[in-house]
Design brief:
Blueprint: H1 16-22, H2 39-48, H3 52-62, H4 65-80, H5 87-97, H6 101-112, H7 121-129, H8 148-159, H9 167-182
Helix pairs in contact: 2-3, 3-8, 3-9, 4-5, 4-7, 4-8, 4-9, 5-6, 5-7, 6-7, 7-8
């Protein structure tokens, strides 16, 4: 198996098929591996099959909720752009750093405000439902919609494809960010220096 998918210590030791089913998600690519195959093994086969969208889909359901929200926030920050403001993004990032009820209440307020034109609005949605229920208080006993965090992260990351420089470069950085987070990094990786619109340096990560 490719070393690219080793040491993903944040990803649960569960079959990829189980994680996909729990999130009501499925892969478009036909997999030859048994249903008991690990996330790393399935990622390796998807890489061989040149199926980056399915790799992103699998990573979105495999990352723990808080880490998945952070991955979504990295994409959201790019979509908002340098100097851009997003109440949704700010509230989601604050929740990642301090996932408490006060932060969650603020997320709800931001969501209820409508967040019109906020390109990172799904970040707030992902963070709000990341605890796994519909909300605090009486809503704690009601489970969150299956796969809502993964769907938000998946959608936001795919939207960054439009930022260029080309789809393959974007696919690579989206996947590498998720893998870095899965290894315990912060996921803040820049585009490779060979890319036309390369960031001058990587921010953190490995």
């Amino acid at each position: 198996m490719s070393k690219r998918f080793e040491n993903l210590r944040k990803i649960p030791d569960q079959p990829a098929a189980r994680l996909l089913a729990a999130a009501n998600a499925h892969l478009e690519t036909e997999i030859s591996l048994p249903v008991s195959a690990s996330v790393s093994a399935v990622l390796a086969e998807l890489e061989t099959a040149s199926a980056p969208v399915d790799m992103i889909r699998l990573l979105s359901v495999a990352l723990p909720p808080r880490e998945c929200v952070w991955w979504a926030c990295i994409a959201g920050r790019e979509l908002v752009g340098p100097g851009g403001k997003s109440d949704s993004l700010a509230a989601a990032e604050a929740w990642v750093f301090e996932p408490n009820e006060d932060r969650r209440a603020h997320l709800k307020a931001v969501m209820d405000s409508g967040a019109r034109g906020d390109k990172a609005a799904p970040c707030a949605t992902a963070a709000y439902y990341a605890p796994g229920n519909m909300g605090p208080g009486d809503m704690k006993d009601h489970p969150a919609p299956p796969g809502v965090v993964a769907s938000c992260a998946f959608g936001l990351n795919l939207k960054t494809l439009a930022l260029g420089p080309d789809p393959q470069a974007r696919f690579d950085i989206i996947i590498e960010r998720a893998l870095d987070i899965a290894r315990g990094g912060n996921g803040k990786l820049g585009l490779k220096k060979s890319d036309p619109d390369d960031h001058e340096s990587k921010e953190g990560g490995t």
